[in-house]
Amino acid sequence: MRRNIDIIKRNDVKITGTGDKPIIFAPGFGCDQRMWRYVTPAFKKDYRIITFDYVGAGNTDLRFYDPTRYSQLSGYAQDVIDVLDTLQLQEAIFVGHSVSSMIGLIASIQDPKYFERLIMIGPSPCYINDPPDYAGGFEISALEGLVDLMEKNYIQWANQFAPMIMKNADRPNLSEELEESFCSTDPNIAVNFARATFFSDNRKDLSKATVPSLVLQCADDAIAPTKVGEYIHRHMPGSEIQFMKATGHCPHLSHPEETAELIKDYLSKLQII
Question: What are the boundaries of the signal sequence (predicted)?
Answer without folding.
Answer: none
